[in-house]
Amino acid sequence: MNDGQRRDDREKSIYILLTDTGTLFTSLIKRFTDAPYNHASLVFGADLSEIYSFGRKKPTNPFAGGFVEENVYSGTFSHFPNTRCALLRLKVTQLQFETARRVVGSFKRERDQYRYNLVGLLGVLLDREMGSDKAFFCSQFVAQALREAGLRLWDRPSSLVTPDHFRVHTEMETVYEGRLYDYPLLDRVRLSKGSGTADPAMEWAVS
Hints:
disordered C terminus, six-stranded antiparallel β-sheet, two-stranded parallel sheet, alpha+beta, 7 helices
């Protein structure tokens, strides 16, 4: 076996964070999906230090959506301390891990070209692909990034993948489920500097 093969066979992990902030908007979505979580993010690192998704760039602005780098300490999540979550682990090869990082890097460099795929959410309800190549919603982005990394987890297109598809997939291992801010690998010092209370003005924000 050559060095390239040994490197590819090394086991790595990519994480998918599923969340429910309990906002009015997410409660409305749950009425249609009947699923416990309505937002999906791609995570590199069990400490949640790198989280990527598609959502609102500014939580209080419903018209500014796109690729976002999420932060549990200072981002939207910090306004909703009772956010519930499930952290899923997907075991991958070193090559798949590195490829996924490159895919996300491409989204970061071209973030101004992307927007949130609101039309695509309607497509999910109709079981029909809708939207443009430069528009994604949260679980569509995660599924597409994994697909481009060589991880084809479903026969369906990425635009029809929901957060619940990740939750029930047999290759996903649930490593934590509960209150987001009770997750044991978070930095307690950084958490203590947060507000710790929900902001009523953001109650309708997309999570």
